[in-house]
Specification:
Layout lengths: L3 H11 L1 E7 L10 H4 L11 H4 L7 H14 L4 H8 L8 H9 L5 E10 H11 L7 E5 L1 E3 L5 E3 L16 H14 L3 E9 L5 H4 L7 E4 L4 H7 L2 H4 L7 E2 L5 H12 L1
Parallel strand pairs: 1-2, 1-6, 2-3, 6-7, 7-8
Antiparallel strand pairs: 4-5
Helix pairs in contact: 6-12
The structure holds magnesium ion and zinc ion.
Protein name: Pyridoxal phosphate phosphatase PHOSPHO2
GO molecular function: metal ion binding; phosphatase activity
InterPro entries: HAD-like_sf, HAD_hydro_PyrdxlP_Pase-like, HAD_sf, Pase_PHOSPHO-typ
């Protein structure tokens, strides 16, 4: 039989970390990287006929058409990449991820975004904050042999509340389950986001966790309107709105110190 000390050490070995979950567009960056790409085209705007093809809940397919248009304008992947490097970060985010990079023993950090892996990778690498992140979950994108960016849907799922290509709750639940199997358990989770697709994952969070909607954006409005509770599922995490990522950093420091 294990002594109390040995059991405690075993528990410690299993590792109780804090999990930070971030949306990307209008959360980590202060813009939408999918629409930012239009700046790489000669006209710096999309033809109306193309804009009209967007159907609600089918953003990724629409972006596929946008990326073909960008490719047709002879825009190279290199120039898209340099345009991505000009996207502004939200206030305090770079400092927050620099802090997280220095505390990887205590903090895991993931992105769950409906943008795409290519743009996110380019932006994180350019800012030198890549080491903060353990995983980026987004629609897979690559450059084809014509030099066009192509985007695929992340997954299919059964959630009726979410866009067809991505349920952030399913991604979060699957990640936590896989980590648990690998021996990593999370004591707390903080989720920061701004959009309507950031509501679903908050429903799987636990008491003591912190849901952080960006002040003045859709997610905060939905939470203030009580949308999460209307369908009978009361939210368990504490809700704390933020304007600058400095406020997210304060919550994080309070959890780990
Ligand atoms: Mg967003
Ligand atoms: Zn969902």
């Amino acid at each position: 039989m294990l002594s109390v000390g040995a059991r405690f050490r075993k528990y410690q070995c299993r590792g109780m970390k804090t999990l930070m979950v971030f949306d990307f567009d209008h959360t980590i960056v202060d813009e939408n990287c999918d629409t930012w790409v239009i700046r790489s085209t000669p006209d710096k705007r999309l033809p109306e006929s193309l804009k009209k093809t967007y159907e609600k809940g089918r953003w990724t397919e629409y972006m596929g058409r946008v990326m073909s248009y960008v490719g047709d304008q002879a825009v190279t992947p290199e120039s898209i990449r340099s345009v991505m490097h000009t996207i502004p970060f939200t206030d305090g985010m770079v400092e927050l991820f620099t802090f997280i990079s220095g505390h990887k023993n205590d903090i895991d950090c993931i992105i769950i975004s409906d943008a795409n892996t290519l743009f996110i990778d380019w932006i994180l690498d350019a800012a030198g904050i890549r080491p903060a992140f353990d995983k980026v979950f987004s629609n897979p994108a690559s450059i084809d042999n014509r030099g066009y960016v192509t985007v695929q849907c992340y997954h299919s799922h059964n959630c009726v509340k979410c866009p067809i290509n991505m349920c952030k709750r399913k991604i979060l639940e699957d990640f936590i389950e896989a980590q648990d199997k690998a021996g990593v358990e999370y004591k707390w989770t903080i989720y920061a986001g701004d959009g309507s697709n950031d509501l679903c994952p908050l429903k799987s969070m636990r008491e003591g966790d912190i849901a952080m909607p960006r002040k003045g954006y859709t997610l905060e409005r939905l939470l203030l309107a009580g949308v999460a509770t209307k369908d009978g599922t009361a939210l368990k995490p504490r809700v704390q709105a933020w304007t600058s990522a400095t406020e997210i950093l304060s919550e994080l420091k309070a959890l780990i110190q």
